[in-house]
Each structure stands twice: as structure tokens, then as C-alpha cells.
Amino acid sequence: MELDISNRSLAAYKALASPVRLEIIQKLSHRKMSVKELAKELNLSSAIILMHLNKLAEAGLIGFERDGHNKVSRLKVDKINIRFPQIIYPAFDSYTIYLPVGHFTNYQVTPSCGMAGKDDFIGKVDAPGYFMDPDRVNAGMIWWTDGFVEYQFPNYLTKNDKLEMLDLSMELGSEFPFSNNVWPSDITFYINDQEIGTWTSPGDFSDIRGKYTPAWVPDNVNQYGIMKIVRINHDGSFLDGQPFSDVTLADIDPYQPSFKVRFAIKEDAKNQGGCTIFGKGFGNYDQDIELKLYHS
Predict the structure, then answer these.
(1) Which stretches of 43-133 are assigned E, i.e. beta strand?
(2) Looking at the domain 86-295, which fold is it?
(3) The HTH arsR-type domain covers which part of the protein (predicted)?
(4) Under a CB-based contact definition with an 8 Å cutoff, are residues 181 and 204 in contact?
């Protein structure tokens, strides 16, 4: 589950701000339970337990289902990520390019793979040849198991501009037929053919629907990913503000005509769980792949 620092995530924070509700979550992490079972375990009335369950359900943390004549509760979330606002560096000039996920210029993928647009799949699923279909530019989500997808962002810097920092942000997840919330995958980032580092995606999520994922996408396939921000400056590379690798701006030759960005599942990756890229109109963040350049 993805949260941010905004009012739309407030229900989840309020739901978690209770010792009783935290204990309910602990109980439900082991098995589904009815109101009566929880009331007995926690030594509280059924009415009080139901009030707490409703708050957890409103926040999207649990769900209800029928087991015979009993209404039981089940945990829907096994991980929560909180995205804080991005730090801004006003001392530098900057420009941003948003590239739709279907605007890749090179690829080498194996099934399961495919592309989805706002109304339907684009081409045939699990047929790599369709990755060159002209309609691919309308894709809002793409996925593959092994191989890579590569993009080229235009470089508007002049020889009088000094690149001070580069931010690359995108919503990513693993790739599993239908979905699997626990399905690690090692996704490696490259810029201008320089390997920046590898991030292990924890899963291919469908515990809840993506905030922007179109209604036609079935509930049991990947719904959203995790927003990742790769930052490169003169000191090194960072992922979500944490040290990532020793690669600096000097290693990526920032004065080529374009910035070539590749997302890959390497042949020797420990966790070969595929990759899904969510763009505008899909997932939890209504944005395409974003490249922001800070310069002086």
C-alpha cells in the first residue's frame, strides 16, 4: 500500500493511531477472524470491535467476506510505503521531461509481457513482437519478465550549462502472471549505458486497486507499483534519498544529444521477477516517467 503526506492518506494514519486496531491487525495477520472471535481475544464487546473494524476497512487496510453465516475480516495489506515530498533545490535552474511509458525506443523482452492502454490491452499479451506496434505510444502500463526496455529523453542542456543533479522518477513493480504481492524482482537502472544500481521490488501488487488504474483492468492483476526516485549528483547516486552507488554525473556523460534510460532484469539477477512500469492513468501516481535536470 502506498501513502503520501496528503489528506487522501489521512484515513490510513488515523486507522493506525489506535493500540486496539494495531492489535486487531496483528491478529488478522495470522488468520481471518469474525467479530465474535476478535471480541473474545481482545476482551471487548462486539460493538466496539465492529467500530474498530469499520475504521480499518474505510482506510483500505482490511476487507470483509462471508464464511457461512459469519462475517469475517481479512487483512488486505502486508506492507505500507510512505512517500515524503521531494526536496527542492531552488538555487539551480531546472527543466522536467515527462515521457509516456509507451515511448520506448529499444527493447528485448520475454513473456509474460504486454502493454495496456486506457481502454484495453495494446496488441496481444505475451507476444513480444507487439512491442513495436505503432499503438505502443498510447500505453499507460507495460510489463515483461526478462530483458529490458529503453527510453531516450531529449537533452536540452547547452555547452554553457553545467549539470548539477539529475532525478529520475517512475512507478515500478515486479511482474507475475495475474499478481503476487510477495514476488521479489531485481530491477537494474542504466543511464547512458552506465549501470546505476539495482533495486529489489517486493512484489506485483493487487491487494487494493490502483488509484488511477482504469476500471476495465481486472482486480486480480497488478494494480500499482512503488514510486522510486533515482538521484545522481557530483557525490554519487541515491535511491529515495539513501546511498545507492558510487556513480556520479561525470560517469554518465551528460552532454550527449539524449539521456538513454534503461530498465532491465539481468540474466544473472538473483530475483528474476520481471518488471512493470506504471505511467499516466495507471497505478497510484498519475505521472509518466519523469526526468528532471538541475543545472547552473
Answers:
(1) 62-67, 70-75, 81-83, 93-99, 106-109, 114-116
(2) Jelly Rolls (2.60.120)
(3) 1-95
(4) yes
pLDDT of residue 7: 87
CATH number of 2-75: 1.10.10.10
Averages of pLDDT over each 10 residues, the chain, 296 residues: 84 91 92 91 92 92 86 86 69 91 97 96 96 96 98 93 94 95 97 97 94 95 95 95 94 91 97 97 96 94
Instruction: Scan for cell 495477520, then name that residue.
Output: 29
- Residue 90's pLDDT is 57
Q: How much is the pTM?
A: 0.75
CA distance 98 to 170: 10
Strands 258-265 and 147-154: antiparallel
Residue 28 exposed, middle or buried by CB count within 10 Å (0-12, 13-18, 19+): buried
